[in-house]
Amino acid sequence: MFKILKIILVAGVFVFLNFFIYSKKSEDITSFEIVKLCQFPEELAESSGIIEFDSLIWSFNDSGGEPVIYAADQATGRIIKSVQIINAVNTDWEDIAQNDDFIMIGDFGNNEGSRKDLRIYCLQKKLLNKNDKLQKVSAGIIDFKYEDQYDFTPALYANPFDCEAMIATADSIYLFTKDWLNLETALYSMPFTEGQVTAKHIGGFNSDGLITGADLEKESGQIVLCGYNLFYPFIIILDNIDNLQPLHTFEMEELSGVQIEGIAISGKGTYLFSNEKSAIPQSLHMLRLKM
Asked: CB under 8 Å, gap of 24 or more: what pairs does 177-180 form?
């Protein structure tokens, strides 16, 4: 009898401790704070994607803007440097990514699903001169198509081949699409090679919203995505490119009506994200996990 009671007591303590540890861990990883860092000037009113490089935030304006990327101070939003890509056209620029040697700008906005001129511009980092406030450079070009798109009939906000999110490694580029109909995202990969390439469909998941930006943490392989559903913004954390089951989703109800467009990982548990001019002026924010 006493032996049975001892077993029950030990089992109860074990269950309690596991519940306590799980609850504390869950609280730790889901608790976060959001801080507005700065407001961008009007030159970046339609800021559509961001990266953090050389201690600056690099961004650009989307469809119809100048073929220029801007480097801004994180604390003030002041534009420090502008780089014009002389062999580029901003048809519908949507995201910016980087690896060790290149900055990539994705001209793949495709609201109607009818584009046959999808393109990624690849700018060598070594060409950027810190002392020049205005530079004009030429970029490499990747032209691509989706392997599973056969119909190019215009379908405004009703097609699965719109895209606003991109990450890059040394030898590959990955795209997360936005599907206006089922609020899912598909993952495509392509080789990081200039010229004509094919984006291959390698996965996807139910994002329950429109994905508008992405970034990759090189060392861990962790991926962060941003987006919104009915203009309620969110951030999704993925373990790696091979595991698309979301680890965490952070819903930011206090920013309802804000159109989040770009995101960058800025250290462990710290994410920078930007919004274009919408319910609030174009701004840079930080989401920080409370570990």
From this structure: 177/204, 177/211, 178/210, 178/211, 178/212, 178/227, 180/210
